[in-house]
Amino acid sequence: METMKRWFAVHTHPNGEARAAMHLKQQGFEAYLPLYMKKRRHARRVDMVKRPLFPRYLFVRLDPEFDQWRPINSTFGVSQLVANDHGPIPLPEGVIEEVRGHEIEGGVIVFDHQVPFAPHQRLEIVDGPMTDYVGIFECMSNSDRVVLLLELLNKSIRVTLPREAVSAA
After folding, report:
1. I need a surface site. Which of 29, 43, 48, 159 has the fewest CB within 10 A?
2. How does 64-94 read in b/e, with b if 16+ C-beta sit within 10 Å?
3. What distance in Å separates the CA atoms of residue 78 and residue 57, rounded to the nearest whole number?
4. Is 1 contained in some domain?
């Protein structure tokens, strides 16, 4: 008889996703913890660190009719398998495959960033020493920063700012 394995969500303890995934794999479960690269600022340094795409959740593939799934709830790092009175609740078909479709080498999820502004759109600076100045959107730089043209002292000046420092004028 063929089993019908599906993906199920596992709720973890705070910051316990990696530990839970490791212990589930040691028990023979197929566990999936999607990660993405996040900028971390600390002590005047900026670096990139892997973080869970869905904090406090990971996914496990099983057939609840045939697999012994109850030990998942007592696994180190796991809070509980997402379930109701009738048992584990499966994810909709194709969700994990869609997420995995955005993986690059190394298993990191990358989503295509849309350019948040239209060319020549007027943007207001909302943070920093140039707050309240209005400039013209030129482009996004490689590091997800906004490049604006500002009129200062009758000259066009190119300014690069964090994405969070501007909003539509």
Report:
1. 43
2. beebebeebeebebbbebebeeeebebeeee
3. 9
4. no
